[in-house]
Task: structure prediction
Amino acid sequence: MTESKKTLVGKLFAEHGGALHSFLYRRVRRHPDAADLAQEVYVRMLRVPDMTAIRNPEAYLYTVASNLAKEHARQELKAGAALDVDDAVIQEQLAELPAFGGQLDTEQRIRRLREVLRQLPAKCQAAVMLQYWDGLSYEEIAQRLGISTHMVKKYLSQALVHCRRRMARLG
Result:
């Protein structure tokens, strides 16, 4: 990789890094995902064989970012659609709290789990709190949140998938 390519890409990110993160955040609605995607944009820009062939590097940067955001949305949709929240086996698996053992001590895991839970949408967070902290049933949670029991199951499934993904990155 030539030094001029590194310099050009570095300059592009120095000038547009904040705006790029905001651009991605508006599309994915989670800061950690936006940060991950911004990093991937940087890597992909460094992989471009001939930067001189790009007429407008700024426009290209946002095109790459837009394509990555679309790809991310498809993956999220696919991951969410892959779970049948009414399946008894899935419900049993999701009811079990995952073991995040390893190098992290309990306090670090708790701190990290709180951080991961804060990344969830408000109703998703509320469903998790009511289920695991207050021990409420799906029906009770649905009544409190003004949603169907199916949505409660969906929120809890989404939350657990999210937590497992984020916590697994630590291990």
About this structure: The helical segments are 3-28, 31-47, 57-81, 88-95, 106-118, 122-133, 138-145, 149-168.
